[in-house]
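Hypothesis: this fold can be encoded by more than one sequence.
Test: take the structure tokens below, design a sequence, compare later.
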């Protein structure tokens, strides 16, 4: 489960880089990265 969090963080970091450099697919990377972090924390909240 921790791997999902770190993958989400790394995708989000790359998405921010893509957005700053105005490269393609920045919006898709942001959705994927922040979506995976959202799912991770949602599961973490209901697991307790």
């Amino acid at each position: 489960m921790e791997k999902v969090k770190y993958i989400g963080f790394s995708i989000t970091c790359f998405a921010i880089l893509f957005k700053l450099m105005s490269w393609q697919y920045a919006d898709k990377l942001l959705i994927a990265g922040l979506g995976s972090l959202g799912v991770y924390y949602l599961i973490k909240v209901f697991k307790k």
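Residues 2 and 40 are 9 Å apart (CA to CA). The longest helix spans residues 26-47.
Hypothesis status: open.
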